[in-house]
Amino acid sequence: MNGKSNKLSIITIAYNCTKDLDKTIRSVVEQTFKDIEYIIVDGGSTDGSLDVIKKYEKDLSKWVSEPDKGIYDAMNKGLKMSTGVYVLFLNAGDILYDRNTLQQVPFIKYPTADVFYGETLSVDDKGNELGLRPKRLPHNLNWRHFRNGMVVCHQSILVKRELAPEYNMDYTLSSDVEWVLKCLKKSDQIVFTGTIISRFLEGGASKQRHGESLKERFSIMKQYFGLTLTVWKHIVFIVNELMIKLGLKNQFRKNYL
Fold first, then answer.
1. Are 169 and 179 in contact (CB under 8 A)?
2. What is the pLDDT of residues 8-33, one digit of tens each?
3. Phi and psi of 246, rounded to 5°?
4. How far is residue 243 CA from its own chain's centroid?
5. What are all long-range contacts of 2-6, with beta carbons under 8 Å and residues at least 24 apart?
6. For residue range 159-179, what is the model confidence (pLDDT) as tens digits?
7. Is residue 35 part of a domain?
8. What is d(CA 237, CA 96) in angstroms, rounded to the nearest whole number?
9. Which of 29, 49, 168 is nearest to 99 (CA)?
10. Three-point CA angle 192, 198, 201, nearest 5°
């Protein structure tokens, strides 16, 4: 790595998460695909995270540890530091699916692609596999699919850096939804990898503050899809969540691909 290659910039945002940060970094530095610029933006951790970062310093292209204004401010810092053709955000606690994940992204077959995207495997805090999201990913993804919510996980989408805008700081939990929407709207060629790209750690900030996150998502969806459709889709979403709690519907999909 060491900043010499720049096909893909991977940006990890971290704050006081020593254990989670270590496994995230390892999942990147152990990739068989090596054309990576790896950037870590730490929010001024005081729990030993800096020791973890320094342990892997030779494998990192750039890193910084300083106070920020929240996760999306940190992500904007990472974007400004990046120089790769594509960017991927893999925050502390999330990891790439396996050692060959990035090797399977068809960069050569689709040299003009604006976006590559794949599936996401949810895991618990012990690393146990919970399954994929219940809805299969569309193989012809475009921004209109987001009328059904965040159909593609932020951790499983690689976006051409020149198309990637800064994150909207008006949102504190769901700015990534709007960010992906903006990226897709500007993209001409969007490619499904047919693979699982990341393992997503369930229980992040958006889960812990679920109500606030939903309000932000409602605001974003209303802006892009109108009030009537947004209200209807949120009713469907609430009914689905209720069915999952009652055991009438599976929360995760087990048949992976």
1. no
2. 999 999 999 998 999 999 999 999 99
3. -85, 0
4. 26
5. 2/58, 2/59, 2/61, 3/37, 3/61, 3/62, 5/34, 5/35, 5/36, 5/37, 6/35, 6/37, 6/83, 6/84, 6/85
6. 999 999 999 999 999 999 999
7. yes
8. 28
9. 29
10. 140
pLDDT of residue 204: 54
Cα–Cα distance for residue pair 185/169, rounded to 1 Å: 20
Listed in sequence order, the residues at least 6 apart from 255 whose beta carbon sits closer than 8 Å to its beta carbon are: none
Distance CA 196, CA 132 (A): 9
How many angstroms separate the CA atoms of 13 and 53, rounded? 12
The label of the residue with tokens 């996760």 reads: 71
Q: Give the contacts of 88 (CB within 8 A, at least 6 positions apart).
A: 8, 9, 10, 11, 155, 157, 158, 159
Report the C-alpha gap between 226 and 188 in whole angstroms.
24
According to DSSP, the β-strands at 95-96 and 115-123 are: unpaired
Residue 254 lies in a domain: no
Residues of the domain holding 136: 8-245
Is 24 within the bounds of a domain?
yes
CATH label of the domain that carries residue 79: 3.90.550.10
Count: domains in the chain = 1
